[in-house]
Amino acid sequence: MPKSKVRKKDDSATARTVSRTPVKVKAAPSSTLYVSVMLGLMIIGLLWLVVYYLAAEQISWMNSLGAYNFLIGFGFMVVGLVMTMRWR
């Protein structure tokens, strides 16, 4: 079987191609405000649940929410935990 001819690469063509190797982008550290909001949301969620368990009978509006208190408390905590994914 005959061999195929080897073509010479044009140097100007290789210079125009874009490198496809991934480059790491160094991200700046998160601001203190971002970290404060993140931790604050998690603590607010925790406090909401603790207050609901301990004093739901004394706080009428919280008692009327019923099981939605779990949604509110865990909602705050989940938002804080989702924020940790962008924390640097």
From TrEMBL:
The keyword Cell division applies. It is a multi-pass membrane protein. It is found in: Cell membrane. GO terms for cellular component: plasma membrane. It comes from the Bacteria. Involved in cell division. This is Cell division protein CrgA. It comes from Rhodococcus coprophilus.
